[in-house]
């Protein structure tokens, strides 16, 4: 299985012309069980298009999601840095390292031990003082 078959990363779309192809592509990918990862504003994209109405998720704020027409996933919102559920990896704007960690784990890009070492290094720093 190639990486493109194992994960689909989505970013924010500032260009309105790009939104329709993104929605269609996202629905196809989700329908095939390929993981979708979204951070910051990309979680809002998933919210606006109904992807978060049936999976546990997080993002920049519940209030922001609740302001979107058609959002019914408020009972599934988790106030956390990252949430992984049913093939969706969602993260708030301050969770870049945790977000990458969960993507790496999902993709199995290395052994669990090496991924843990990477996470520890980037989360806590390479140089530590007592």
TrEMBL record:
The organism's taxonomic lineage, starting at the top: Bacteria, Bacillati, Bacillota, Clostridia, Eubacteriales
Protein name from the UniProt record: Putative protease YdeA
Gene Ontology BP terms: proteolysis
Highest taxon listed in the record's lineage: Bacteria
Organism whose genome encodes this protein: Oxobacter pfennigii
A Pfam family recorded for this sequence: DJ-1_PfpI
Residue ranges of every copy of the DJ-1/PfpI domain listed in the record: 30-105
Gene that this sequence comes from: ydeA_2
Keywords, alphabetical: Glycosidase, Hydrolase, Protease
GO molecular function annotation: hydrolase activity, acting on glycosyl bonds; peptidase activity
Enzyme class: hydrolase
Keyword Transmembrane: no
The UniProt record lists the keyword ATP-binding: no
Entry EC no(s): 3.2.-.-
């Amino acid at each position: 299985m190639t990486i493109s078959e194992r994960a689909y990363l989505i970013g924010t779309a500032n260009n309105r012309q790009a939104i329709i192809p993104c929605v269609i592509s996202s629905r196809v990918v989700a329908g095939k069980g390929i993981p979708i990862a979204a951070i910051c504003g990309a979680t809002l994209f998933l919210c606006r298009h109904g992807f978060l109405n049936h999976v546990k998720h997080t993002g920049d704020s519940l209030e922001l999601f609740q302001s979107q027409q058609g959002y019914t996933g408020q009972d599934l919102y988790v106030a956390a840095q990252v949430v992984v559920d049913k093939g969706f990896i969602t993260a708030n704007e301050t969770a870049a390292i945790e977000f990458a960690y969960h993507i790496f784990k999902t993709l199995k890009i290395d052994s669990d031990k090496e991924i843990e070492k990477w996470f520890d290094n980037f989360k806590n720093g390479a140089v530590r003082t007592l």
